[in-house]
């Protein structure tokens, strides 16, 4: 039997990048999957690739509830929420306006909470609910210039996950997170080949991850085999956070 046979999943922000990798991996493992994208254009592209897609702006709590209801009706239930929708603009501290702060927190933090709030009733009804957040090594283990706001939102997600795991445990809902390192996505590729090569050199395994690497971890956390794991964050980074100094890699 496939790892997720019979499971019904929603992946927010699943029309591109890591989210698309998650959705395709869950599908390959047997789950019925619906993804969301913030624009109809993104959703149309996802549908062209064989994914079922709905538009959703996770900043809108009411819209999250409406989409969850639609997903639950279409799939006949919901037992997996992969809360992946997020943005990662770069802005240095001295240049950050209130609008920059509000923008990233409204998507990455408020959007995460909205998605989880909306999904809890359906996940509780399933009797085997799984929530997997896409956090990051940035903010939890590492830092990078101009990503202080991004890192703050990713650390906030982990803080949310730990307490949410306790709160939802009586409903047999687990809450975990996957913390990607540098994963090859269109957003990362936009930073240029020099940046990609530099990042690959900082990874002990010697290469950057693919969206499906994150998808495999999400699939495990969504499976029945992870029923006794909750409140945890799994780093998927090829060992990127391990070296004490860059020189440590030279010793290899």
Fold and architecture overview:
With 252 residues, the protein is an alpha/beta fold. The chain is 46% helix and 14% strand. The chain is built from nine helices and seven strands. It has helices spanning 17-28, 40-48, 61-75, 98-126, 148-168, 186-189, 193-201, 211-222, 247-250; strands at 8-12, 32-37, 52-55, 80-83, 130-134, 174-180, 233-236. Strands 3-2-1-4-5-6-7 form a seven-stranded parallel sheet, sandwiched between helices. Helix 1 crosses helix 8, helix 3 runs parallel beside helix 4 and helix 4 runs parallel beside helix 5 (148-168). It is globular. The protein starts with 7 loop residues before the first strand and ends with a helix.
Could you give the topology of this structure?
Elements: E1 8-12, H1 17-28, E2 32-37, H2 40-48, E3 52-55, H3 61-75, E4 80-83, H4 98-126, E5 130-134, H5 148-168, E6 174-180, H6 186-189, H7 193-201, H8 211-222, E7 233-236, H9 247-250
Parallel strand pairs: 1-2, 1-4, 2-3, 4-5, 5-6, 6-7
Helix pairs in contact: 1-8, 3-4, 4-5
Q: What is the total tally of β strands? A: 7
What is the CA-based Rg, rounded?
18 Å
CATH class descriptor: Alpha Beta
Low-confidence stretches: none
Outline: globular
Largest sheet: 7 strands, parallel
Structural class: alpha/beta
Domain tally = 1
Helix content: 40-55%
Measured between the Cα atoms of the first and last residue, the distance is 41 Å
- Alpha plus pi helix count: 9
**Overall pLDDT confidence:** 96
């Amino acid at each position: 039997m496939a790892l997720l046979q019979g499971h019904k999943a929603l992946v927010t922000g699943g029309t591109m990048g890591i989210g698309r990798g998650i959705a395709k991996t869950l599908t390959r493992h047997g789950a019925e999957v619906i993804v969301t994208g913030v624009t109809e254009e993104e959703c149309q592209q996802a549908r062209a690739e064989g994914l079922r897609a709905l538009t959703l702006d996770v900043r809108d709590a009411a819209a999250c509830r409406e989409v969850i209801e639609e997903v639950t009706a279409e799939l006949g239930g919901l037992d997996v929420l992969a809360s992946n929708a997020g943005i990662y603009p770069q802005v240095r501290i001295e240049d950050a306006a209130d609008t920059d702060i509000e923008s990233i927190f409204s998507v990455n933090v408020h959007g995460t909470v909205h998605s989880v709030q909306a999904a809890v009733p359906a996940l509780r009804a399933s009797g085997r609910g799984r929530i997997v957040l896409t956090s990051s090594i940035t903010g939890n283990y590492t830092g990078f210039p101009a990503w202080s706001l991004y890192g703050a939102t990713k650390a906030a997600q982990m803080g949310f996950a730990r307490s949410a795991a306790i709160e939802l445990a009586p409903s047999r809902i687990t809450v975990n997170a996957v913390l990607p390192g540098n994963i090859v996505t269109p957003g990362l590729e936009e930073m240029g080949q020099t940046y990609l090569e530099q990042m690959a050199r900082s990874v002990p395994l010697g290469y950057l991850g693919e969206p499906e690497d994150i998808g495999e971890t999400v699939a495990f956390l969504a499976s029945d085999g992870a029923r006794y794991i909750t409140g945890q964050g799994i780093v998927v980074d090829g060992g990127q956070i391990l070296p004490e100094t860059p020189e440590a890699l030279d010793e290899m």
